[in-house]
Amino acid sequence: MAERVSIRASEKPIGKVFSDEYAFIIPNYQRPYSWGKEQAGQLLDDLIFSAFQPDGAKPYFLGSIVLIKDERDPAAEVIDGQQRLVTLTILLSVLREILPDRRETLTRLIYERGDDIIGTKDRFRVSLRQRDQEFFEKYIQRDGQLASLPIHAVLSDSQTRIRDNAILFKNRLTEELAEVRKYTKLAQYIAQYCYLVVVETSDQESAYRIFSVLNDRGLPLSITDILKAEVLGAITALRQQEQYTKKWEDLEESLGREPFEQLFSHIRMVYVKAKARQSILAEIREHIKPTSSPIRFIDETLEPYAEAYYIVRNSNFEAKRNAEEINRLLRWLNQIDNDDWVAPAIVAVKKWGGSDVDRLLHFIQRLERLAFTLYAIRANINERIERYARVLSSLEADVDPRLKESGLGRKPSEIKQVIELLSGDLYYEKCVRYVLLRLDEYLAKGEASYNYPILTIEHVLPQSPEADSEWAKTFDEKERQELTNKLGNLVLLSRRKNSAVQNRDFVYKKTNYFGVNGVSPFALTTQVLEHSRWTPDVVRKRQAELIEHCKEIWKLTE
User: What is the per-residue pLDDT for 218?
Assistant: First the structure.
């Protein structure tokens, strides 16, 4: 008989995870540390947001780690969880530097002091791959070394990320908290209220099987699987249970498994109006309580929100009037790089879709302006959720979307930021494609279609013109620096970029690259083809005109 493999899983606070119970080892075959400043910054945002809640700190779930570990030995080979363990170590090291009075306590979370009585040696809680450990130990884990981090040295990618994340944490904490008591509170919160699910097995094969299950979306029980069992199980009458099982499964099939699961996170947001502090499942159970009245939950919450979600995500609202404009705006909203706007949209569709399409149109118009503004100024997830929570509260209070109290308005400072972004080197901004497509639709008076397999953004004046080219004669160096990446110098193409053509003169590019016989599928590009020369004055004039169009599209005068 095969030996039975032991698998243990438990939820533990970071203070217990970074303890003498574990000595985490990252095997050499694992990929290097890969969290960049975006992921590290998001973790810090989450921790600060959760630690300083006005009604007190709530537990924060950091995910799971999978270990190969013998019960009798603290040595633990990390199969999954390296990014969290390393990033937390970096954060604890930064807190140790800015909290000298708590240095000893924080040092204990970073490494274990040996004891010759019981025969243990000094060892770090986390040991990286051999090629990174010396750097990690020297600058992060050892006390007092952060100040000597090599700022300008050429490092490996993983060491660069370790250094950059340490600098990010130090800068963010000293700028945003700037008080010893707040640093202390954050350290306490991390140690006491942040949890990891620690999954341990002594067998490598089972460890990788667990890792695969946790990371394969198709295999584990989803939120909807668990809720389905709980909610339908709470319906005691067999015939009703069969009826509502079919209704549930029909909704899931019509949306698709993944969108159906995403719907529950949006429903949670509708009710809670705040960023999740626990798992989505736990918050649905706590705030919505679907099992207390399962039939009402399915009929009055799940079904209407599933229908609204389908309309919003597929842009297929139907009504005798306003439907075309509402769907046009929904199509644009679905191109925003986040879906935090979805919860207010589904509430509005559910609330007014069948009774007041004029009010719904006003709402969707202003929602798209707000969503674009937050997208353009790169508002982080906490800022977005706070804004949309206000919108949800106003919907609940039945506030007219045209009023200031609707939460759909934008601050003057935000509008100013958007105008500055549009006026600057837009080519390098995340929202550049969105802006160009919206402008193109505006110039085409709504008649444009964008079902192109390839869609690229091209400069008219090239970024690196040759010294003896027409471009160098027409634009001096100062003008090239000023205008090259501005909105007025950009066009859309339905073809791949061609490096052999990009630096050719304007007449050649106009005839052979931007269009055919003076026509392009994009109104924005056809506008350029109407010019016989491309000069600094032409670019500046076009820039000013396009900025005015943007102000009209997004009402940048509120």
Answer: 37
